[in-house]
Amino acid sequence: MGGKEALRGFLYQGFASVLEALCHEGWDRIYIELDSKNDKVDIALEANHVIVKSIQVKSTINIFKKIESFPPNEIKSEEEAEICLSLTDHFKDRKLKEHLDWNRDIYEKLESFLRTNTDKKRAYQLLWSTHCSIAFAAGRILNSKEGINIFPVQKTATHGTELWDVKLSPGREYPKWKISDSGPVENKYDTALILNVTRNIHNDVINYVEESNIPVGRLIDCTLEENGATNFSVQDGTHASLLANSIYDAIGGRNMAERRAVLHIFAAAPNALMFFLGQNSMGFGKCILYEYDFEKRSSCTYSPSFDFTN
Length: 310
What we know:
The protein is α/β, with parallel strands linked by helices. The chain has helices spanning 3-23, 102-116, 132-141, 202-212, 237-250, 256-260, 271-279; strands at 29-34, 41-47, 50-55, 63-68, 83-86, 91-92, 95-96, 123-129, 149-156, 160-163, 177-182, 190-196, 216-224, 262-268, 286-292, 302-308. It folds into 3 domains: 2-53, no CATH class; 61-161; 175-306. The strands form 4 sheets. Strands 11-13-12-14-15-16 form a 6-stranded mixed sheet. Helix 2 packs across helix 3 and helix 3 packs parallel to helix 7 (271-279). The chain is globular and about 70 Å long. Pfam families: SAVED.
């Protein structure tokens, strides 16, 4: 990246780095362009005469991309992305239009957009106002084997809009899943994975599974162990990533017949968590995602979205 694009990258990251430094706790002195015999240090934080954090400003990060599928009057964010994929004309309110198909008309466009506009030499922030299924699919496309440095920007109930990247802090404990596993049932091998993160959807899922005659023999119900299902249950990007990774353990009790069958994924969760879950989903086997008519404008229940069974 060079010329105006490079300068803009430095400005973006310069502001981001200063804000990151000011939000960091436990320092009593800040240095700009600290003399260092090793790597270049643009910002350094000191506590009790010890450097506790060093930050480099690079022009190759903060390439903003946005994915939106909700109607414009529901997009309340003011952020501007450099590149935007709009899928709003494929939906009526939040429901996919009758003649369209999630895999053919949404996934293919999403995959083309993400693969065309990402490379391993840059780092990206992903903004969105979209369905959780699309966030999951984006993560699945940009799974860890792709080697793309990309993290989601999440709208939160307590801290506004935040970059949910992953920063492992030794000794920090996050709330884990409280998991209820019921099953198996004879001659039924599908599994329903229920993620009650922002709201409890257990009863809605049970009603839908029964009404739709889905051959579910095992229910894996996941809720956060401390705050339960609330808008602030997930604390940050690290927490979301850890929760997504631990789903492997949650579904690990399935027998061989169940693993060969279909995993039905129902979630009320932040899009960032769904993105991380999608990144880890290649080992789930066959799976189908579902969207709920939260606004009770159409079906008042679930409908399938992406189908990853072929």
